[in-house]
Each structure stands twice: as C-alpha cells, then as structure tokens.
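yo

u said u wanted the structure for the complex thing, so here. seqs first:
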Amino acid sequence: MKRDVFQAIADPTRRAIIALIALHAMTPNAIAEHFDTTRQAVSKHLRILTECELVVQEHKGREIYYSLEIEKMKEIDEWLEQYRKIWVTRFEQLGEVLEVMKKEKAKK
Amino acid sequence: MEFIVNKETKTVLITKEFDAPREMVWDAYTKPELLDQWWAPKPMTSRTKAMEFREGGRRFYAMVSPDGQEGWILQQYKSITPKTNFKLFNAFADENENPELPGSDWDLSFSEENGRTTVSISIYNESLERLERMIEFGFKEGTAGQFKNLEDLLASLQEPNTSLQEPNT
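structre next:
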C-alpha cells in the first residue's frame, strides 16, 4: 500500500519527530522521551514515516536508529514550490487580461 | 503574491492584489471566455466545455498541454455572494464529467480598496498528494535549484502547537 506522504506530515507528532531526528539519528526510546505518549504510539508514528520513506532505519549493534531522509523532504518541498509557481504564472496572466479589460473599458 | 501552505490543516492560502476594480476581477473569475484567457499556466491552455456560474452550477473544463493532451476538471459552485465570495468543489474528472474523488474545497473572496482588488483563495485538500498529480500533469519545468533550503522547511515544521495525539493512520 502506498502511503500518502502529505498525510504523514499533516500529523503534529510526526512533524515533531521529523524535526527531532533531522538533527541526528535517534533510537525509538530516545525519541519517545520527548513525548508525553506511549512508546507504542511513537513506534506507530515511526512505522508510518518509514512506510512513507521519510525516515530510514539503521541497525547499530542491538539498537535501531531512525534518521531523516532528506531527499524525500526536498521532494515534498519541490511539489509545493511547483504548485506555487502555477499560481504565480496564472496570476501574471490574469494581470495581463485585466490590463486589456481596463483599456477596452476606457475606450467605451 | 502570498502563498501559505498549512500542512496541519491541509490548506493552501493564496492572496494576491490586482490593480483593477473588483467588478472586473470578479468577471475574470466568473465568465468562461475570460477565464480561459488566463487560467491555465503557459504553455498549457484552458478550454471550458460547459459553465453555468450559479449556485449548483458547474464549470467543466480541460487543461490542454502543448501536445494536445487533455486533463479534465469539474468545478461545482456551492455558494455565490455576488462580487464578494464564491465557493466551489474541485475534482479531476474523466471526459464524461465523472469526478475522481477526493477533490478539494475552494473558497474565493474578493475585496476592493482604492480601486485595487485583493483576491484570497483558500484551498482545502483532503489529501495534499493531489498536488503531486496536478504538478505531474504538465507542469514539470525546470525548477531544479529552486528548493527553499531544508532549514526553512524544518523551521516551518516546528510549529508551536505540536500537541500530542495518537497516530492517525
């Protein structure tokens, strides 16, 4: 099943996890310490983030470390930037149409 | 132009001021022959097949790429306050006007001050992944290197209201 990456970052706890592990890779226990919630809840968030490929796991000895997949985050940002550009172009064109309308109105 | 993405509320807020009276801007948004002149970002073109601008009415139009590919979009008008506000439901569709859900809810407001008109558009998406589809449809032009940097992004993720919730799967 393909996860919705935007759904993933729409959740405030998951955004907080992303912000935490952006600094350095962390174990689930270390992450859970930052939240007033159960370890299970944090694990569930991490699973969703992993399925969205926003975080990756790395085994170091007995511990599993989670770190942020920076390229994937850039991808999200790129989508949003392109969406913004659509509106910039659209509004430039609307501005041109309005100029023509104003000139036509002035003629009348 | 102001462009604010609120990932928490899944809303995009776009605000822009135009040097034109409100009536003119309103017409540009609500008359198909005017809409088609500016709605599609170049090199795309917009072709409205059917439009009745009234509550319960709809606009059914195609975004046409330079090589002639059509992407159909259905917009249903939910409420209209003349020259002030209208709301619509926007969805991708097939060529027979069958919408593909989920769609997005749009709320467009128009206000005038000193002969200049401000348009505020709020777009609520059940899933922001729809944006990905929109962009895949023909808008992938050279944006490499135009990323905001990652620090900015992460700063925006660290919003004050990181209230804790159970996972929402």
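Confidence is low (pLDDT under 50) at residues 136-169 of chain B. The CA atoms of residues 75 and 90 of chain B lie 4 Å apart.
cya
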